[in-house]
Amino acid sequence: MKKINVHIKTNRQQDYPIFIGVGLLEKINSLVDITKYSKAVIVTDKNIPSSLVQNLQTALGLPNSVVVLESGEQQKDLENVQKVWKALKDFGCDRKSLVINLGGGVVGDIGGFAASTFMRGIDFLQIPTTLLAQVDASSGGKVGINLLGIKNLVGTFQQPIAVIIDIDTLSTLPQRELISGFAEIIKHGLIADKEYFLLVTSKKAQEFSQDELIEIISKSVQIKADIVSQDEKESDLRKLLNFGHTIGHAVEAMSQESNKPLLHGEAISIGMVIEGKLSKILGLLSNEECEILEQALIKAGLPTTLDLPVDDILEKIKSDKKNVKGETKFTLLEGIGKAIINKLVDDFTIRKVL
Ligand SMILES: NC(=O)c1ccc[n+]([C@@H]2O[C@H](COP(=O)([O-])OP(=O)(O)OC[C@H]3O[C@@H](n4cnc5c(N)ncnc54)[C@H](O)[C@@H]3O)[C@@H](O)[C@H]2O)c1
Ligand SMILES: [Zn+2]
Question: N or C: which end of the chain has fewer CB within 10 A?
Fold first, then answer.
């Protein structure tokens, strides 16, 4: 088992461990001090195997109840947050109760947001069951929901008490979801570590062994933790993690309105190609590196192009909460393994690349 400590520099109260390994769900009591909680509510979705939920309930040894949500990005809304709030109230939760999110990024974001606002905030634990949530969504403390067709419009910054990444949970994950998770892994290489980028793109997602996967997840978690610990609230450095996400979120939100919704990692893959091209046009990334980026994503089995009206994408980009004073700032690449934040790009250039 690997253990990574996240130390938020601005807030000593919020240090927390991330455990990565196999068979961890059954050992939850030895990893986290559960005894200080009065009761727990497990938030999960209908695709999470019930055996996982039962194993967790058995291992907990605390009075607990379970909320099962519908699955999918469309569920990341206020209605489901209300469902969790109501379940917490109905189960008689108090400030010493714990929310445990067992599922992908959608469950983690809904459950985390509900916990961070219930009674002005109670503790929550993340047990991510998709690769994407394991390497990205479960750590970092951003929790929130979509509203009015805009991704993550409402949310809070609240760190979990711990993250337990049990690789065994991936055994039932559909291959498309596994590949989607690799988009964020590749992003970590692109923004922070060229050698890591070359390693994770050396073969297809499904060809990595379990041991290799543990190494990869640990490295990705470490890259994210290093960044978040220096800038929890995204004043500057944390924006590094947004590479591919300005365009990616617009594409993701638009695809949700179509009959062919993209997964988060798939939309980010398209976003990374377009933002890679922006980096090239601005003279930050060479032709060759831009090509390497695109080919790596294609090899990983991720989509890299999309046929969407340029005006609609631009409009969505403008409503992105990352924009300030109507200016569109991007995180771009200055080569593979190095990103640069706050690059102002005018609409003409964005249109040209789109
Ligand atoms: N908070 C953050 O910092 C952060 C970071 C990145 C992404 N996100 C968010 O995370 C979401 C995407 O997360 P995701 O890709 O995990 O999507 P998801 O939660 O929708 O999970 C993907 C699908 O896999 C199913 N599933 C989950 N675990 C499974 C398992 N072990 N076996 C079988 N099926 C399983 C789910 O039911 C769902 O249908 C997006 O909403 C994105 O905005 C948040
Ligand atoms: Zn992402």
Answer: N
